[in-house]
Amino acid sequence: MKTTTVLAIALGLGALGACNKSPQEQTADNIEANAENTADTIEANADNAADMMQANAENAADAVRNSGENSADSVRNSADADGNSAN
């Protein structure tokens, strides 16, 4: 959920719950809600970064495997072409 949506919902809920609260209590509740939303956003960003790091590592590993296979195939093919094949 986008941060602005979360903040809008939090402020809306805060406004509904603020009917019988003092201004100080309303302010304290808003501070808590904003801090909670910020913490949730930080956690979501960390999860996304970890997922991206894992995907990048998997892509790099695949690239190394493919490069190794291509190099090995090239060596095999050149050995077959010059008649030095063991087969």
Give a quick rundown of the structure.
Helix 1 runs antiparallel to helix 2.
Tags for this entry?
85% helix; mainly alpha; 87 residues
Note down, in words, how this protein is organized.
With 87 residues, the protein is mostly helical. It has one domain (3-81). The chain is 85% helix and 0% strand. It is built from two helices and no strands. The protein has helices at 3-17, 23-81. Helix 1 (3-17) packs antiparallel against helix 2. The longest helix has 59 residues, at 23-81. The model has no long low-confidence stretch (mean pLDDT 84).
Name the helix and strand elements from N-terminus to C-terminus, one letter apiece. HH
| Quaternary | single chain
Mean pLDDT: 84
Rg, Cα atoms, Å: 29 Å
Q: Strand tally, please? A: 0
Outline type: rod-shaped
**In this structure, how is the largest beta sheet organized?**
none
Helical percent range? over 70%
The helix count comes to 2
Low-confidence spans: pLDDT under 50, at least 5 residues?
none
Derived from helix and strand composition plus strand pairing, the structural class reads mainly alpha
Q: What secondary-structure arrangement, pairings included, does this model have?
A:
Layout: H1 3-17, H2 23-81
Helix pairs in contact: 1-2
